[in-house]
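Please discuss these two lines.
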Amino acid sequence: MEPDFELVREIVGKEGRLCRFCLGSLVGEKLGAIPNAVKGAALGSILELTGRSSEGPCAVCDNLIENSMDDLVERALRLLSSIEYNSVKAGVKMPPWLIEREDRLRAKYNPPNMVSVKLTLIKWLDLVLSAETGAPVEKDPDVLVTFDLSLKDVELRISPVFIYGRYRKLERGISQSRRKCPYCGGRGCEKCNWTGKIAEGSVEGMIGEVMKEFFESDDYVLHGAGREDVDARMLGRGRPFVMELVNPKRRSADLKRIEEEINAKWKGKVEVLDLRYSNREEVRRLKEGSPEVRKLYRALVEVDGVVTDKDLEKVERELTGAVIRQRTPKRVAWRRADLVRVRKVYEVKTKKLDERTFEMTVLCDGGLYVKELISGDEGGTTPSVAEVLGKKAFCRELDVLEVLGH
């Protein structure tokens, strides 16, 4: 400590007084886990006892830190008292002029154990927040408290809450995602509560608006394991999803009660099941998908002409086990990259309904466009039902019966 103290004494003698935070930062790497602010206070006392202290404002921060901290900490605790959280972490924004002064000091004297004033302050604030709230400090906390010394303000960045579940869409005409607000074009306005999106008529909105109330969040985002068309139903055990609640003031809620409320409110249209808490990692896995994901569809197929029992036997025989090469369908080309996908069909079964119509169930890889598997999409999908039959065919209705592999 002796060489460090001699250097500290020289710096204070030439530059002027330093506050406990800036003083402690000069020897930050010394004396292990003792907070730098405590080291700085001790150094200040020693300098005073030995008659080496200086008068005036801090030569680095101009007393900004000591003059601001009590008020900022009080403001932070007031903000924290209105939200629910289980862990905290402090962040600090320093004014540029303070960083420049610190850099000049470092360049001029090169203190071997110096750490930044910002780091000193963050570690001290971590201790204060944890002691005052009882919440542990974590690297990935529920709430990050940022102390902005330039603006002399505090802001909270609250981590999202993630809820996993499965949804069933029982009525056609409901989109998975919210639509852009027609009044503002997605920019945000009073009509859409500044979200830029309209909740009505979407699975995301129907589920998200209920969850938003329970968790007192600002907004929400539905991450689904794929998506069905607006005119298709999602049946069976439902499609896996994770709802991300943005900036939630509550982190715990009765998920069974949420499930019951959603299912009662949207009875006959949308329902959820298996709700549980989740995390960002599960969102990533859900979005990336898995090569083992398979989907079971039921389609109502209409043919341009008469279809016979032998025709249907041929469809089952030639498409079961078939490897399908499928170019991005024309109907989604405006929002999807133009590429050729290779997907497998594992099983096809048919049931004749009348001379032009039959029901078809298809078990296939996730990502296969089943409407185009039927129509052929003018040669973009091959083989297809239309190609096997040698006549035009199109999908009149489509249901997703199961999403397997999640």
